[in-house]
Design brief:
By secondary structure, the protein is mainly alpha-helical. About 70% of the residues lie in helices and about 0% in strands. Helix 1 (about 1-25) packs parallel to helix 4, helix 3 packs antiparallel against helix 4 (about 100-120) and helix 7 packs across helix 9. The two termini are about 40 Å apart. It is a multi-pass membrane protein.
Length: about 260
C-alpha cells in the first residue's frame, strides 16, 4: 500500500510535467525554460498554484492573475498519470523492472495526447525511449539474472518493428512511420514480459483501433479517408498487454484447444 501511495504522488508530479511536454514538444520548444506560465497573460505560475490537481480545484480552473480559464485537461492528465503509475505498481510490485515500465507509462501518456492533438509521434520522445528502455531493462537482467527475458525483449522489438514496417511499406496511407518507431519500443517492453503479452498487446492495438474506426464510421463522425491517430490505440493495447496479456493469451489458447 505504501508503494502504491508513493507511486500515486509521483504520478501526479510527473503528470504535471507531462502537461508541459505535451504542449511544448510538438512546437519545438524547451520543456525546461521558460517556467510554467499562463498562456493568456504570461504571468508565471506560482509555486502554490502548481500543486497537481489540488491547485486547479482551489483556483476553480482559472488563472490567479487574469482569471482566464485553465483547461480541465491539466488535472485530468495528472490524475491519469497517477492511475497508470498505480496500476503498473500493482502489477509489477517493488521490482527492478518497475522503473522501466513507469517510464513507459509516462511517455505513453504524453505520446497518446500529442498524437491526438497533432497526429504525430515526435522523434524527440520516441527515439530516446529505445535507449532508456534498453538501459533500464538491463538493470533487472543484470541484478536478477533475467538475460533470457532481455533477449526476448530484443526479439519483441525486432518483431513489432518489422511487422509495422511491412504494413507501412504496403499501405503508406494507413500507417505513419512514427507508428513503426513506437512499435519497436512497445515490442521491447511486451517481449520482456513474455510471448503472451507481446501477442496480446500487439493484437489489442489493432482491435481497439478497428472498433473505434467502425464506431466513428457508423456514427458518421468519420469517413474511410479520415486519418485517425493510431498511437493511442497502440499504447492502450500495450498497457492492457502489460497488465493482463499473459492471462488473455492463455485464455485464448485454452478456448481454441491449443
Amino acid at each position: 500500500m505504501a508503494l502504491l501511495l508513493l507511486l500515486a504522488v509521483a504520478g501526479l508530479a510527473v503528470g504535471s510535467f507531462l502537461n508541459v511536454v505535451v504542449w511544448r514538444v510538438p512546437r519545438g520548444e524547451s520543456v525546461v525554460t521558460p517556467a510554467s506560465h499562463c498562456p493568456s497573460c504570461g504571468a508565471a505560475v506560482r509555486t502554490r498554484d502548481n500543486v497537481p490537481v489540488l491547485s486547479w480545484l482551489l483556483l476553480r480552473g482559472r488563472c490567479r492573475d487574469c482569471a482566464a480559464p485553465i483547461s480541465a485537461r491539466y488535472p485530468l492528465v495528472e490524475a491519469l498519470t497517477a492511475v497508470v503509475f498505480v496500476v503498473l505498481g500493482a502489477r509489477l510490485g517493488a521490482s527492478w523492472e518497475l522503473p522501466a515500465f513507469l517510464y513507459l507509462g509516462a511517455v505513453g501518456v504524453a505520446l497518446a495526447l500529442i498524437d491526438l492533438d497533432v497526429k504525430r509521434l515526435p522523434n524527440a520522445i520516441v527515439l530516446p525511449s529505445y535507449v532508456v528502455a534498453l538501459v533500464l531493462l538491463a538493470v533487472p537482467a543484470l541484478v536478477d539474472g533475467r538475460w533470457p527475458d532481455y533477449g526476448r525483449a530484443l526479439l519483441g522489438m525486432a518483431i513489432l518493428y518489422g511487422g509495422y514496417f511491412a504494413l507501412a511499406f504496403a499501405y503508406p496511407a494507413g500507417m505513419g512511420f512514427g507508428d513503426v518507431k513506437l512499435a519497436g519500443v512497445l515490442g521491447l517492453y511486451l517481449g520482456w514480459l513474455g510471448w503472451g503479452p507481446l501477442a496480446a498487446g500487439a493484437f489489442l492495438g489493432f482491435l481497439l483501433g478497428g472498433v473505434v474506426g467502425v464506431v466513428l464510421l457508423a456514427g458518421r463522425q468519420a469517413t474511410r479517408k479520415t486519418a485517425l491517430p493510431y498511437g493511442p490505440f497502440m499504447l492502450l493495447g500495450a498497457l492492457i498487454g502489460v497488465l493482463a496479456g499473459s492471462g488473455l493469451a492463455g485464455a485464448y489458447l485454452e478456448a481454441i484447444g491449443a
